[in-house]
C-alpha cells in the first residue's frame, strides 16, 4: 500500500493498494476516449404492444458529448412533452460517449426525433417508466492519453489481481498484521493474467464534489443536528479550485452572515447557494435552527438526500481505509464480518457478479470456512455499513472498526432518524469490487499518442470507474473527473 493523494484522503480514500508508481497521463482528451455502456436490466414488451397497458416507450441512446439532463430536456422539447415524462436508469458524464436507456411516457417510436450527436434505437414498451438504478452496471473503455510510465500498468494490474484474487492472497490470514500480499502456507500463488483485478469499493471523488469536496461535510452536520453548521459548510468553505470571486463570496458569508449582501456577491450560476441565501434573507431577525433547516430544504430533494448519502459514503470510505490499515482481507471474511450473497437473478449480465445486500449473514468462527468457500466462488461478498437508522453493526474486529469510526465522527445509527428527505435507514455495501481487465497500449513511441493506454472493465451499479483508474494513474483526483 501507499498513501493516497491528499485530496482523496480528505474524503476517506486513505491509500492505494498497488505500490507501483502510477502511469500518470490524462483522461478525456476527446469524448470518445471515455466510453460507457449500460449493462441493462430492464425488460420490455414488443414495440407494437398495447399503449394502454404499456404506455412507456423505451429506447437506447448513444450520446456523444451530451449531459444526461440536457439530453432529456432536448428530447422533451422535440416531442413537445413535459420533461417529467422522460426517465433514465443512470446519469452519465457529458465528456464521453455513453450508451444508456431512456423511457418516454405516451409517445410512439415513429415520433423519436433526429438529434445531433445522438443515435436512438427504439427497443419496446413497458408498463412503468425507468427508475434510477434500473441497470445492472456499466462497461467502460477508457483511454489514458500521454502516460508518463505506460509500462507500469502491467505491474499495477498484477498487484490488483493479488488484492482481488484467492490465487494470491492479500491481507492477514494467520494473525500477522503487516498487511500486503502474503503466502500463508495454503498454496497461494501469483494470480494468472486472466484473473480479475480487485480494488476497494470506495465511493469516488465525484460523490463528494470533484473540485469542492464538501457535500459530506454538510451531511455530517445534518446528522449531528447542526442545521446552521450544515448551511455554512455549503455556503462557506472557499477552495482554491474555485474562481477568485466565488472564494471571496464564500469568505464574506463566513465573516458577516449578511445573507442579503451575499446575494449580490454569489454568482447566478451558484443557484443552490442562492436559494439558501434567499431563504435566510427573508427571515425576520437572526435565523434559528428551523430557518437553517428550511434553507437546506430549499434545494432540490435529490440534493438533500445526497448530503446525507455523502456523509454515509465518507464513513464507509473511512471503514475501508481502517480495514486496509489493519491488514484485514477484503476478499474473504474474518470472524464478526457481515457478508451478503450473490444476486442470482436470470437477468444479471454475464459480465457481472452482483451483490444482493438484502441477503445478509453474520460470520462467526464456525462459519468462516464455509463462507470463505462461497467468497472464493463469487457467491458471497464481505460488506461494511452505509450507516442509517436500521444499521446493525458487525461483531469482532470489523465491528470494533465500525464503532471506532462512528465515534470519531461523533455519529451513531440513530442520528439518521431525520426529517423529510434527510432520513435514511442505511444499508450495507460490498467492500471489494472485482472486474476482468483489458489493457491495450497503442504503440511504443515515446511522448506520443501511440503510448496511450486503453483500459476496459465492467462494474456493478454504484461502483466508480475512478476507483479503478486512480490505482493506475495515481494523479490529482481533479484529473479523474
Describe the structure.
The chain is an alpha+beta fold. The chain contains 13 helices and 16 strands. The chain has helices at about 5-10, 70-80, 150-165, 215-225, 225-235, 245-255, 260-265, 270-280, 290-295, 300-325, 370-375, 395-410, 465-475, and strands at about 1-5, 15, 35-40, 55-65, 85-90, 95-105, 120-125, 135-145, 195-200, 340, 355-360, 380-385, 425-430, 430-435, 440, 455-460. Strands 3, 4, 5, 6, 7, 8, 15 and 16 form an eight-stranded mixed sheet that branches. The two termini are about 25 Å apart. Residues about 175-185 have low confidence and may be disordered.
Question: Share of helix among residues?
Answer: 25-40%
| Tally of separate helices | 13
Report how far the terminal alpha carbons are from each other: 23 Å
**What structural class do you assign from the helix and strand content?**
alpha+beta
Task: Encode the helix/strand succession as letters.
Answer: EHEEEHEEEEHEHHHHHHHEEHEHEEEEH
Number of strands: 16
Estimated share of beta-strand residues: 15-25%
User: Largest sheet, if any?
Assistant: 8 strands, mixed
Average the pLDDT over all residues and give the rounded result. 91
The gross shape turns out to be globular
**If you compute it from the alpha carbons, what radius of gyration comes out, rounded to the nearest whole angstrom?**
24 Å
Low-pLDDT parts are 174-187
